[in-house]
Design goal:
By secondary structure, the protein is an alpha/beta fold. It has a single domain, classed as Rossmann fold (3-Layer(aba) Sandwich), CATH 3.40.50. 32% of the residues lie in helices and 16% in strands. The two termini are 24 Å apart.
Amino acid sequence: MPAGISIFLSYPKPCFAAQKEFIGRVREYLEQRGFQPRTLGVTDYDMDAPLKAIRRLMLESNGLITVAFRRTFVEKGTAQFRSDVENLKETPIDGKWLTTPWAHIEPAMAYQLGLPILIFRERGVMDDGILERGVAGLYMPEFDLDSTGDYLGSAEWGCHRQVGGVCQGRRRAKGHAADVILSGTPRLSACSQIGSAVPPDARERTS
């Protein structure tokens, strides 16, 4: 079993060097604070069907972080192409990126299991499915790997460090003693936003 607080880290296989560096820094950040990020096919392997393996790993985790990287580029495309339904019209999606379907599937599974979830979307990735604003009832930060700024050193990233408190509470509720405390976190209530994505009966189990 992992030595730290187990957390499911979900992301598509990086296809750009900047993505690989970013996820490496996220993983390092979590490990330095007593968490054990776990990703199927990277830290954990399973011979079972993918969905069964994901569910097993989630049941062993105390929260989920998804990073929706750019994966497929749509140079020229149209949503509702040739639609003949009233009040629907074609919408251009030129120059948009799609992420992996697993960036939708895994957060949805975690939500149904009552796990705290936090989703980061790379700029340019279409905000559809669970990436659509308001679907999961929480703030969904967007990061830009094309910019020269350091997102992991930004105030916005600092606010989301509060996910640690939620995951620790989840761990204590599962009968473990959490000994990692994140200090100096801005009072921007990322925890309450994440908590709002958890079904009411799940909040009772984790409070």
